[in-house]
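Recall that a protein's primary structure is simply its ordered list of amino acids. Everything else, from secondary elements to tertiary packing, is in principle encoded there. The following example makes that idea concrete.
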Amino acid sequence: MRMTFALGLGALLYGVIASGANPALAGDLSVDEVSALKEARAGDMGKLVFHKEARPRIEEVFRDKYGNAISVADYAGKVVVLNFWATWCPPCRAEMPGIDRLAGEMGGDDLAVLALSTDRFEIDRVEAFFQEINVQHLPLIQDRSSKVARRAGVLGLPVTIVLDREGREIARMQGEAEWDGPNAKAMIEKIIKMTAPGV
């Protein structure tokens, strides 16, 4: 019940944001570039909301399997697709193989793909799920205290945010998607090209 309410509230709030957004995407993108991004939102990418202005970079830290502190700042210079999820969330579990494939196919110098677990128990359970579905490309990271999720305004799961090369949120999707599908990859490729240094 609580999760259903949170998801409904999240969808309502982001619907309001989407309806009030102007055609100027955060950063230095032109109107034509924003139009191209909107054209890339075919299929389930139609749920992707571009913000009126880039949101400040999240400074709170999360942890890897060894307890090391990591932050969004560690990925400076890359576009980041950051997925918030939990092992108890069926839609999260369903989309995780696709997120892993996206990381394998497109991750590199220009793109980081992260799946940040918000589970409150030990990371061993998250690791067991990754092993169960044979995750090959995603780092094992956890926001056990949910500080990062709260700072990002995550109201339900799954939520995926797109960060520019300075770590600022420029777009968000509430709900699951086919992140390794052609529509998602086309959109991400456009963002990578449009935010490339010197462009």
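The chain has six helices and eight strands. Strands lie at 49-55, 62-64, 69-70, 79-85, 111-117, 141-142, 159-163, 169-174.
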